[in-house]
Amino acid sequence: MDIRFLTTFIEVAKTRHFGKAAENLYLTQSAVSARIKLLEEYFHTTLFIRQRNSIQLTQSGDKLLPYAKQLCETLNEAKQELQIQSSEYVVCGATQLASELVLPQVLSHLHHAFPDWSVKAEVLTLDTLSRQMHERVTDLSFSTEPLKSEEVNSTVLFEHELALYRIGEGAEAIDAADFVAIDWGSKARDWLLTAYPQLRDAKLRTNSLSLALNNLQSEGGVAVLPTNVKSQLPENIKVTKIEALENVPLRVYVHSMKQVRRVGLSDIIDSVSAAY
């Protein structure tokens, strides 16, 4: 029997709600229901009384609960002892922009969903990230561009609209002397140079969103930014949307090797993908 069935049973017993238990365990509600059903089949009994607005433990479920807790505690203690000799860890890599856009949330998710795993995070160039993936130095990686490799699964984690903005007060003219160029990729660059050829030059070029926002906040200027930019700047900073980049979304990709060799790593990869 999979120990995760018992941890799911304990969480449902604690929350008395399949949906809340699923949220706490980073699972779908159907997955929680399936685990409880398999557990009931294993013990040949009913563990919960399912009513419309209430879930209660049956007499059998009430008897199982202390044993389930004891088993989980014992196995966790054994796991911790074994990790002293062979610790579990996951290495995450990300390009600069992707590290600022998703890595803090990913790290928080991993620490909550997989507390027994140690996490190492690195900011890398796209080429280095690709090389380390193939060398299996990096387990899970993120970038704003896909990795072109038959050995790598490269899927969109999320996407967001981009638009040209003016930050702070300034003249209506769109001039290179005010332009902060952020490296959103070739499609965004091509769109911008077609629509605003005068922005071929820039007062600042960077692959860091946080550095660009700090400069725009202190000096003002024009830049291509995600459309949620207002939430990243103080309320007293004037933000003016000039034009949306049509059909040029910001995409963040998650990458993993198609053949995952390490035990437990597939669960981490699936969990991160499902969290977005």
Question: What is the gist of this entry?
Answer:
By secondary structure, the protein is of the alpha/beta class. It has ten helices and twelve strands. The mean pLDDT is 89.
Could you characterize the architecture of this molecule?
The protein has 276 residues and is an alpha/beta fold. The protein has three domains: 3-85, Winged helix-like DNA-binding domain superfamily/Winged helix DNA-binding domain (Arc Repressor Mutant, subunit A, Orthogonal Bundle); 89-159 and 252-274, Periplasmic binding protein-like II (D-Maltodextrin-Binding Protein, domain 2), CATH 3.40.190.10; 162-248, Periplasmic binding protein-like II (D-Maltodextrin-Binding Protein, domain 2). 43% of the residues lie in helices and 24% in strands. It is built from ten helices and twelve strands. It has helices at 3-15, 18-24, 29-43, 59-85, 96-101, 103-113, 126-134, 186-195, 209-219, 265-274, and strands spanning 48-51, 54-57, 89-94, 118-123, 140-143, 152-160, 162-167, 180-182, 204-206, 221-226, 239-244, 250-257. A five-stranded mixed sheet has the order 4-3-5-12-6, with helices on both faces. A three-stranded antiparallel sheet has the order 10-7-11. 27% of the residues are buried.
